[in-house]
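Note to self: keep these together.
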Amino acid sequence: MTDYDVLRVFCAPNGGYGNELGVVREGSVLPDREDRQDLAAKLGFGETVFVDDPERGIIDVYTPTRRLSFADHSCVGVAWLLDVPELVLPAGEVGTRLDGEFTWIEARAEWAPPCVFHRYATAAEVDDLPVPPAGDWIYAWAWEDEPAGRIRARGFPGRGDGVDEIEATAAPALLLTERLGRALNITQGAGSQILTAPQPYGWVEIGGRVFLER
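Structure:
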């Protein structure tokens, strides 16, 4: 089996929760896209990253079923692992920075896949939501503290493939930040934390904690 690291991205302050990520640091061992897709399917992580050039930050990202042009939690995780000023993906160049316990990337909202936003009156309503039937990608959210920018959210991909809810994904957060035009502090899933901040010229920063699992 090809060597790989396992990270958790967008973790809570105590290091819990977050979304698992597989990273193959020596992408050259599997140069063929079909082989990479096969390995991503076997590993079964939401995303698996192949590092093609660790110094220039060139990476290639796959879900178990397809190749991605941009991947938010993969970029945050690999930015922490490689500590490089930028990452290069098919979608474009992603600026990165480390700031204490948080790792940040800079991305554009148009890189994120579309989703349907359902806003609720209270965080408790979001907590109590049942998993919706397969269909639209739904991002359910409510203000926990609007003046402070604190949001409670859950993400339901609606694919009907057994993944009913995604613990931590920043793609909808990227879109919501652009829509609201303000920095957000999001508690998503069972307890993951995602930070965002709008930047000039259509860019949005996404930040989170990363822990090495193995």
